[in-house]
Amino acid sequence: MSEINNLKLCDLVDKIKNKKLSSKEITEAFINRSKKSSKLNSYITDNFDNALNSAKEFDEKPDFNKKIPGIPLAVKDLFCTKNLRTTAGSKILENFIPTYESTVTQNIIDHGGIIIGKLNCDEFAMGSSNETSNYGNVQNPISENLVPGGSSGGSSAALAAKLTPATIGTDTGGSIRQPASFTGTVGLKPTYGSCSRYGIVAFASSLDQAGPMTHDVKDCALLLEVMSSFDTKDSTSVEFTRGNYLNDLNENIKGKKIGIPKEYKVDGMPKEIEDLWEKGIKIIKDNGGDVIDISLPNTNYALPTYYIVAPAEASSNLARYDGVKYGFRSKGENLIDMYEKTRSEGFGDEVKRRIMIGTYVLSSGYYDAYYLKAQKVRRLIKNDFDEAYKKVDAILTPSTPSSAFKIGEKLNDPVSMYLNDIFTVPINLAGLPAISIPAGHDNNGFPLGLQIIGKAFDEQNILNIAYSIEKNIGYKNHINDWWIK
Amino acid sequence: MTIDLKTVKHISKLSRISIEEEKAKRLTNDLNSIFKFIEKLNELDTSKTEPLTSVAETTLKLRRDKIESKNIREDILKNSPEKNKDFFVVPKVVE
Which CATH number is B5-43 given? Predict the structure, then answer.
């Protein structure tokens, strides 16, 4: 591995600004390492040749005022990229070449970033292990035959394996934070409305948010600055003053009130996770933070609520895949037959399962009992957080109830797979920001994460708390490049 | 409540997803275990709770109905699996 691959995003930006490294040198280093990573299967489509040309162009006419000048980045294949295939991990989009650019990837390009490829993910971001992708499962660089988490599993694997200095994911129920936790990396889901959803393949529109995935909290602050913007092309984009997240990063958390929700102490949670949580609490106290016990009484209802709301929105969003305007088409005897065959052959099992759940809960006679009921419980869950935030500034929890599991282990039991998102889903339902940072290892040496949840639009605060914990917890990722040997 | 095979076939029709008999049976089991899990919500009394549709509870912004994209006909048709000049082609609908 080239020394360049070991550098973090902020270090690379410094090196390029100080002319110690060129964009071409950096881009080549990440492309070369990516080329040797086929065993990980983290890429669906590469953009290596175009990226190298862009790097050369940058070096000929560099603009060092940009936030990520000439920096190569691979991105989740859920973001539409102009003239670069975008599959969302699905067969139904296997030939889809967008004619437009998503706002978030456009922001990356405008700030000097260079897209080197599209990363694997669960089909339409529906999954927690990257096993529902039509393009095969992804290996976790931490250990062979271990899932990298999902749905942003290609992103977390590529980042942990240093195939890209940073990356972006999307998070509907935990799809950034859980894979970050499984790979020993940092992942942030911003407040709903912070990053534009324009050009992101839609899953559940009232929950979807894009966010940064990085090696450390500093890099996370920088990439969030790049991604977050008000956008008239997304009707739920919120117009607020975005912070200078990197510049204002501050490890001083003296006097900050941090809540510990008792409902997150779930039965059967491994002791290592409890210990880790205690370790986080101790660091906060040692740094002058005020730890306060709180209650989020409806936590147990978040997952059932999510598994009504998200499939309902998905069944409506995915109605557009009809084999007419774009994507895969199967032959049929008539129009309806063509629709049914196209969708049957084009979608994978998990996506079909969720479309059918969604169709059912929205269907005549069941709407009130399921969908409306779930929306009401969603209100109760949001109220829990509103109530808690009268007493505290942020909340600390584990990111996941377990470490990464083996490939295939939970594939035949959808409910056990869904339970993975128990600590992350409530945050999406309430639209809040949350960050997962690596904090320790379990007995197998697999990474575990802590999650810091903030008030709406209070990203700076959770970044600061994460920064303070990161500085004191001394986490290091153990990766031995097993996929190259 | 339980979901039977007949219901699964009905949902598959509504979803415009054709499904083989074997898969429908397996899906019936999956959906039942998922709905058993979902029915936990019935423990809660929500008779006085307003539904929350979106956390961004602002009225959607209005904008002028102005055409901003020009000459994108080719772009729109570019990814179509079957087209004829300026049209998407679908199986014959009218006899």
Answer: 1.10.20
Question: Which chain A residues are closer than 8 Å to B33 by Cβ?
Answer: 414-415
- Residue A39: the pLDDT is 98
**Using CB atoms and an 8 Å cut-off, which of residues 364-393 of chain A contact chain B?**
370, 372-380, 382
HEC per residue, chain A:
CCHHHHCCHHHHHHHHHCCCCCHHHHHHHHHHHHHCCCCCCCEEEECHHHHHHHHHHHHHCCCCCCCCCCCEEEEECCECECCECCCCCCHHHCCCCCCCCCHHHHHHHHCCCEEEEEECCCHHHCCCCCCCCCCCCCCCCCCCCECCCCCCHHHHHHHHCCCCCCEEEEECCCCCHHHHHHHCCEEEECCCCCCCCCCECCCCCCCCEEEEEECCHHHHHHHHHHHCCCCCCCCCCCCCCCCCCCCCCCCCCCCCEEEEEHHHCCCCCCHHHHHHHHHHHHHHHHCCCEEEEECCCCHHHHHHHHHHHHHHHHHHHHHHCCCCCCCCCCCCCCHHHHHHHHHHHHCCHHHHHHHHHHHHHHCCCCHHHHHHHHHHHHHHHHHHHHHHCCCCCEEEEECCCCCCCECCCCCCCHHHHHHHHCCCHHHHHHCCCEEEEEEEECCCCCEEEEEEEECCCCHHHHHHHHHHHHHHHCCCCCCCCCCCC
Q: Which residues of chain A have pLDDT under 70?
A: none
B48 to chain A, any CB pair closer than 8 A? The answer is no
Q: pLDDT (tens digit, 9 = 90+) per residue, A112-167?
A: 999 999 999 999 999 999 999 999 999 999 999 999 999 999 999 999 999 999 99
Give dist(CA A27, CA A4) in Å, integer: 9
CA distance B39 to chain A (A): 8
Domain boundaries, chain B: 5-43
Pairing type for strands A447-454 and A72-76 reads unpaired
Q: Pick from A238, A305, A329: which is nearest to B41 by CB? A: A305
Would an 8 Å CB–CB cutoff place A49 in contact with chain B? no
Q: What pTM was computed for the model?
A: 0.97
Q: Do B11 and A360 touch (CB under 8 A)?
A: yes
Mean pLDDT across chain B, nearest whole number? 90
Whether the CB of A230 is below 8 Å from some CB of chain B: the reply is no
3-state SS of chain A: helix, strand, coil percent to 5? 40, 15, 45
Show residues of chain B in contact with A234, CB under 8 Å.
none
Residue A340 backbone phi and psi in degrees, to 5: -65, -40
Annotated catalytic residue: which of A66, A76, A256, A410?
A: A76
Residue B58: predicted pLDDT:
67
A238 to chain B, closest Cα gap in Å: 8
Q: Which two tokens stand for residue A358?
A: 């969604």
In whole angstroms, what is the distance from residue A81 CA to residue A200 CA? 9
Does the interface predicted TM-score (ipTM) exceed 0.85? yes
Distance from CA of B86 to the nearest CA of A (A): 12
For the record, the structure tokens of A7 come out as 């550098």
Residue with tokens 């990439």: A223
